UniProtKB/TrEMBL annotation:
Keywords: DNA-binding. Residues 189-293 form the CdaR GGDEF-like domain. Pfam families: GGDEF_2 (PF17853), HTH_30 (PF13556). Residues 340-395 form the PucR C-terminal helix-turn-helix domain. It comes from Umezawaea tangerina. Belongs to the CdaR family. InterPro entries: CdaR-like_regulators, CdaR_GGDEF, PucR_C-HTH_dom, PucR_C-HTH_sf. GO terms for molecular function: DNA binding. This is DNA-binding PucR family transcriptional regulator. Transmembrane segments: none annotated.
Amino acid sequence: MPWPRPPAHIRELIRRGAEIALNPPREWLDELDEATLAGESRRAVAADPVLNAATRQTNRSNLLFWAAANVGDPGAPVPANVGAATLATARDLVRRGLDEATLDSYRVGQGVALRLWIRIAFTLTSDTEELRQLLDVTCRSISTFVDDTVAAIAARMEREREELTRGTHAERREITTLLVEGAPIGRAHAEARLGYALTPTHTAAVIWSDDPDADLSALDRAADDLATGADRPLVVLASAATRWVWLHTAPDVDRARAACAATPGVHIALGSPAPGVDGFRRSHLQALATQRMLARLSSPQQVATHDDVELVALVTGDREGADQFVQRVLGRLETAPPDLTEAVRAFLAEQCNASRAAQRLYTHRNTLLRRLARADRLLPRPLADNALEVGVALEVARWRGRPRP
């Protein structure tokens, strides 16, 4: 059917509305993100930090793509949004073993976008006939835009699936997935296919980036930085922006932290070392749990080991409850300067021994005592009466991002 071209005054209304949509309020974007990441079919996407971030980025990309097109040529057909970020998401979905059912998030997003657009439309005119014409054209435009974008992504996913099933990365991912799931696969067969011995002790890592503009070669360099000596890590391409890694030797965590500091978009989550096939599986699951915790807390920390965060991961399963716990226990100390919170952390880590804590911080004992006294005045309850809860709250505060308003 020919595309209807609205009259000039309706086109001008569409242009004005599209300019508003180019600068959406934060709560609109939050509503869009919440809706597109909810639901059973999108559970795997919401739980994966890379796919979660990519979905949020795609939501903004689609909204701004459609709005910009209607600022430039109001009411005209909008082509499918098949930019590099959108197609990278399609690759990641396939490499996670997900299918086109996950694309229903686009339909959910379409419903939210329509509601938001109708809100805008009602601010543009009070003339019912103008409003009818405006909505007739733009609702059709949004629907067609989403249909065409979903069709393009589905086609890309099919091509990606065909390529992966023919490649060595697909075989590595398939075998490691079987091992992690505890499937009855022969050890010798798996070792031959992976080129990696399964009997020794393993430390697993998940290396990823949630920055859509990140240099993905930095992920491979980070995997190399973890290896020590002649140990050759097993690296599996879990997605375009995620690497699963296993090592036989203890990783060089300090070197990894230094390397990540120079590459802000890269994050590393490490499991605990454990032997054999069971250790291969357990360490990987711990690394995944650590990754999810860092993402859940919007943590500023780039590198974390499961041993470091096991307690925090358990405490922060309920993010809102954890925030309330920190606020209740720390009071004004929550937003105090870092020298005060680090003084308390070191004091507690050294079993409340001020001399050892001062040595740990490379400071004078009297300086430490003054900082502890200042910190005590900020706490709702004295540190001596509440050391355990204060220690836990400080650990949560250390690993999470900025406190929620």
